[in-house]
Every structure is written in C-alpha cells, then in structure tokens.
Fold this protein.
Amino acid sequence: MKKYMKTTLGRKLTAFYLILFLISFYFMQTLGYQYIYEMVVSETQENLHSAGTALLDMHIYQQAYTEESILTLRTHFNMASETAQCRIIIISHTGKVLMDTSEPNSTYNIYQGNASFLQKSYVQNFTMNGYLKEPSLCVTIQLEKNPYLNGYLVLSKKNSFIQVRADYYFNILATLFYLIMSTLAVAFICLYIFNFRPLKKLRNGAKDFSIAHDNPPIIIKSNDEYGELAQTLNIIGAELSKFEEYQRKFISNISHDFRSPLTNIRGYVQAMADGIVKPEEQEKYWNIILSETDRLTTMTTKLLDANRFDRDNIFLNISDFDIQEAIRNTADALQGSADKKHIVFELMPAREKPLMVKGDPDKIQQVLYNLMENAIKFSHENSSIIVGTRTRNDKVFVFVKDTGIGIPKEELSRIFDRFYKTDMSRGKDKLGTGLGLSISKEIMDAHKQTIDVVSTVGVGSEFVFTLLRA
C-alpha cells in the first residue's frame, strides 16, 4: 500500500509561494521584458522625431539651402547628433546621401536598394540596404518647406543602444520583483513562526491525548487565540487523564448503591431460609424485600434513562398543560415520604389559575418529582418545603425551596453531573444514585430551558427551572 506524504497547511503555503514566484518570474522574463523593450522603442522613436523636427525648424528651414550649401551645417548636425546620441543623414530626392554625421565623404545612393523606407515614418531593425553597419531604428522626416532642397532627413539609433536602455529598465523591474518576493518570503517566515509553529504544537499535543494516561500540557506562551486554544486543550487533556478516576468512581458508586439492597435482600432471605424469622414476622420481612427490590428497579430505570438521554435521544411529547396541577399531583405522590419526617409542602402558586405552559407533562413531572424528593431527603424533620411558580413575560419560573443542609459553594457547579453526590449528602442520601439532578438537567436542556440552584450550607437550597407559557 502506497504511503502518501501528509499535506500540512505549512506545505500548502510553501507550495503556493513557490508557484506564485515561478509564475511571476516567467511573466516578468517574457511579457515584462517584451513590454519594456516596446516602450523603449516607442520612447526612442518619439525622441528622434522631436530632435529631427527641432533641427529642421532651427536650421534648415531658416534659409533656402541647396544640396551644396547644406554642407555648411555639418557642425550643427554633428552637435545635434552627439546631443541626441543618434546618426543624422540627409538624403536628396534622387537618393544621394548629401550629409552623414558618421560618413562625411559618402557617395552612396539609397536607390541602389529598396528605398521604400523613406515613405514610412519609422522602421525597426533596418540597415538601409547595408548602408548602416548595425541594425537600427530609423525615423524619416520629409523635407517639405525648402523649395531648393528636396529630400529626406533620417535619424537612426543602433539596436544595441535600445537594448542597453531596455536592459536598464528591466534590471530596475527585476530588482523590484526580487525585493517584493523577498518581502513576501520574510512575511511567510514570520507567518510560519508566529502561526504555524504554535499550530503545529497544538496539533501534535492534541494528537497525543489519550484516555486514562497523563497528558502533558501544551506550552504556548502567548495571550492570543493560540494561547486560549492551548488552555482549552489542556483542560480537555486533564479531563481525559482523569477518565480512569471517573470510571473507578462510577463503578464504586454503582457497586455501593446496588450492594446495599442486595445485601439486605440476601440477609432477609437467608434468615427466613434458616428458620430464624418467626412465622408471624415473615410478612414484615417480605415487605422489606419487596421494598428493596423496588429500590433496585428504580435505580436500574434511572440508569437506563440516563443512558437513553446520553444519546441525545429524548423524545418530547410537547403539549399545553397546567403546571400548578402537576405540582399538586407530585406533592400528593410524595406526601407519604414527607409525613415520615413531619415535613409540610407549602404550595405557592402564581395568581393565574390554571397556569398553562408548553412542555412534555410526563418529563416535567419527573423533574418535579426529582427536585421535591431531594428536598425531602435533605430537609430536617418538622420543616417545610416551599414549591411555587412565578411569571415574567413569556416565562414561568418553577421553584422548590427547602431549609435543609444546603450545598457547599465549591460543589454547586458539579451537582448536575452524573453520579455526583456532595460530601455532606452521602450520609443522608443512602438510597440515591446521583442521577436524579443529571436527568432533570438533560430534560430541561431538551426543552431548551434552564435549571439553576442557589444554596447556602446550613440554610437550605432553592432549585428553579423555566418553562414557556402556553
């Protein structure tokens, strides 16, 4: 099986930079140089034409020169040739070279070859049929304003000069190109150092995270998003490291919760099997065994509910119902447990009767049952539990308030975790699984509503959850 090199963000950016460099370099070397060369040719053509026009206006057109007297202007023509860095040639209408700043004694006749260039404003890479030793750019201006001198003024500039000029401008362009690409390279390096290196740290650190093993923290000393992400991943890693502890605690809690009723059942059955229990007391022990069996059934049901809710598969049968009636029904169902501790339910309904809300009646009743049952467990004897409703805009607030042992402040954030029991509750909540509040929280989350608690040790607790008004 072939192994492919892993594509990382850094490699992608490097490849993008190299492709950008190569494409830019190609276009600069081809289209860029061609454009510069054409611009230099155009500029040279304009300069030659301007120089020729100025020469005609300042000298030739000022007097009526003939083919013989035009030679008196050789000095001016030589100076103009040096200034414009070009070769100046005067050709008569018969093709005879009258004056040439480079060949003063020339007797060459242009018509010995193709003289059609004289009718064009300029030609490139031209030697005037071999008259010029090197291909040049030639600009032709016809002599029109002198009645005694008919012909042409030709100004030529060697291709080598144009080439040098084009190379000069191209070198400037190349310098700018390499400067820009170097700046981009520095930016890439900075981007890699300040972004991809911490990103690589995060990736490698998160990749090595595992359950039930020590996950070393990812060290990124920065206050930016990478630093915040590293802190978040470190928290996740720490929680993963504690998974084995959570698992042991879960098994310990479940074993403890199931061991107690099973031990009681086995003890009573063994006592009756050994004949220790008197016949008239057997009914009492059978009722105890039945009660312990119901207790096991309840714990098993809660575990199954928690497992079903954990799959985010809570099916809600939403309807409109009277929340105050649900509170009364739940209080009636728990009245027997409350009477054993001489606890009184004080119902404080809102003014509206009935108070209709939207929700799943059975699931909300389960939340009420869990909260009110917990209130009974952790309340002192001869006390009261207040259950009521408040309204605000489109919300209904349902509260269950007791005057029991309360919850320590440092443990409030965890009481909705599964199987969690506060240290203060372990002696009193011997029959609980630590799932009631967790299931209640998940039911309210499924309703997209909230459930909160306010508690003070030694004073009591108040649980509040919200519902939408119908």
Q: What stands out?
A: The mean pLDDT is 81.
